[in-house]
Specification:
The complex is a heterodimer. Chain A is α+β, with helices and mostly antiparallel strands. Chain A has four domains: 87 residues, Alpha-Beta Plaits, CATH 3.30.70; 130 residues, no CATH class; 74 residues, Alpha-Beta Plaits (2-Layer Sandwich), CATH 3.30.70.100; 187 residues, no CATH class. Helix content of chain A is 60%, strand content 10%. In chain A, strands 2, 3, 9, 10 and 11 form a five-stranded antiparallel sheet that branches. In chain A, helix 11 packs antiparallel against helix 22 and helix 12 packs antiparallel against helix 13. The radius of gyration of chain A is 42 Å and the shape is elongated. Chain B is an all-alpha fold. Helices cover 82% and strands 0% of the residues of chain B. Chain B is elongated. The relative contact order of chain B is 0.22. Classes of the chains: A alpha+beta, B mainly alpha. At the A-B interface, helix 10, helix 21 and helix 22 of A face helix 3 and helix 5 of B.
Amino acid sequence: MAVSKIVKIDLISLKKHEGKILDFLHNTGFVQIIDKQRMEGEEVAREEKEDFERRALDVDYVLSVLGPYAKKEKVSLADKVALGGKIKLTTKEYEDVVLNYDYKSVVSSVKKVESHIQFISETNSSLIEEQELLKKWINIDFDLSSVRESLRGQLIFGKLPKKQENDFVKKVGHEISEIEVLTVDSDESSAYMLVTFNKEKRGLFDEHAFEFGFEEVDLPSKGDTPRKHIASLEKTIKENTAEIKKLKKELKGIAEKDMRALKVTYDYFTWQKDMDNARIHFDLTNKSFLVSCWVQKSHLSTLSEGLKTITTDFYIQEVKPNKSEKTPVLIENRNFIKPFETVTKIYGLPKTNEVDPTPYLAPFFIVYFALCLTDAGYGLLLAVGTFLAIKLLKIPKEKQRLLKLLMYGGIMTFIIGALFGGWFGIESQYLPPFLQSIQVINPLDDVMLVLGLAASLGFIQILVGILIKLYWSAKNKDYSKEVLIDALWFVILLSGALWILCNSVFHIAVAAQILLILLLAAAFVVVWISGNNVFKNKITGIKEKEGKSTRYYTWLILGTIIGFPIRILTGILGLYTVVGYVSDVLSYSRLLALGLATGIIAMAINIIALLVKDMVPYAGYVLMILVLVGGHTFNIAINVLGAYIHSGRLQFVEFFPKFLEGGGEVFIPFERKGKYIELTAK
Amino acid sequence: MVGLALAIAGAAFAAIFAGIGSAVGVGTAGRAGAGVVSEKPELFGKVLLLEALPGTQGIYGFLVAFIVMLQTGLLGGEPVELSVGQGLVIFAACLPVAFGGLFSGIHQGKVSAAGLNIVAKQPDKSGNAVILSAMVETYALLGLVISILTVLFFKLD
């Protein structure tokens, strides 16, 4: 029930057991292996290990290829929440797959099929391109493979902007003697033409061609006439598409058959890789190895019991951490308090030598949560809903925490809501008499009372925070100036509060007098401690040099007389802390605001629902129910969120700084966490 | 009627300005959120949470407007006759939540948008982003407390 004790150990054993021990550690997750900060080149030479990283990448690639082909498995909502979509597997099933599954052949066949598909579709797209090109020349009725060049003449294909066509034909016809231009086809933008000319005139032709934007087109010189060639291309494309379809079907078959085994294999390889990476931090001799780890002290005996099942050739030695090393932190609480660790973890963990705030924040958090909602109906819905979610969806223990926390919140909200008379925002005079009779406060009429309640709770929590700090300091024998000032503030705050109570509520004048004196005395000490003794250095300086001379006594007396007011003046700044405490207490007024917000929005929903009912005849009732259900669901969602966040904030900003610094490093166990699978014990 | 008009103007102010604050804030966070979701669709839930946070100011404004409408009897009853002075009091009472909501909504949106970096890079630490964003909301809440207290405590009869 606190920050659990974590110790550093050195585990020494023989190299021949290394694999098994590593496997055991990885499987049980008891330890966090400490990274060895190695110098460059100090890397311990290892015999070449199997490259699990590359294999994992291979399988990962295959999984990503097969992904789109795999049938979406129907996963029940329960499993989805519980496992996060992971495959549940017993250790035996897992080992069976790892030992017997021939992933290599699957990987290579998938790779082959995939690259085949890629090749064919690339071919196809180039064929389609060729087809598109030829379509423009479909009117040519000679064989494209026939000769395009003779001893003197040459034939070229080309296209020209449509509007230039006539000018171009005229111009080249006029300028070049031996030329023939034939427009084969044209569309909106271009004219496609066939030009024959004397080879010797090529230069001249190119000049004109450039001027008019004539562009030579390179048609394939194989096959038949364009029309026939297009037809044959069409046939090949169709064949290829059919082939792709066949190959994809093949992939689909593999996906259906092998997906599960591949996923298991992937996790197996990543785990092997993790273990290989851990090996880097082992120190070796010829026959033995040493590994340093963090482990919970309470797990030490279980750890060595477990290791004994593998071998007796090992030794565990508890060692003191180096000064530069930070011991990682793990907090452990009783089952009932455990859900509240979610809140603590948002802020971060305490340091190793600090107190775990979880048990202290729990009662406050839950009451604040309830005050932010103050609706018994909502509380009931929340409690029942989360309870059913936990039970029906069979969520595993580790993942229940947030739901459990909300369930506690729901129960508390139900109780406080009933006391405040909040039932789905229905005004108290319309409630059944029994519910009216258990109502203690009407928050709308007694706003100041609720505000006072919120502020008092905040005040109490702040006092508790200082108390924890004092207790913890005493336990660690820390009696520094800060601790003394905290203690004085505790006296000031407490006697101040009691003084107000005695004066205005209980009217006990004597007690009030005593409390006031106590308060002032504590405040004076705070001022005295916080103030500077400006002459201190000077006086001690003289004492060291001259001993207790006359000059020393003059300085001592004068310094004390003149120094006193200066000390008081500078010390008064120490009282400024009170501003912090006041603003902390005021911050709790958010509880009132959030609580009223929930109630009034609920009321607004009811009024709107009634208005809707009267607006439309008959169908009005349906609309009314829609408004009620939708509105209240929305209100619950938004306000539970607000209640959770703001109750948390009051812990982090107002409560924790009184006794906690935080920033502990998280204990990250060396353990098996699958991307796809989750092993179960059976 | 002038008194009543002033009171209703106050309600409108609260709803309008707090609403604008939320609209801008949610808009800012939403735009940033779309970027995160485009890369990591699985984070949609967390992104939505951060986007929703600056939305509460609008609700607070609505809340105060609603209480004013209840107090002046506009909802489900005869409107109360208000003097100009009374109308002004209600109007002034609405201002804290109106302006608190306007500015805190806009800035909470910016903090939420920045917090989306945390969500994208370290989804485990999303809780911290939520708390950072909620810090801004404090001032809308304080405005809300003052507005509600004033409107509720000011006796119209």
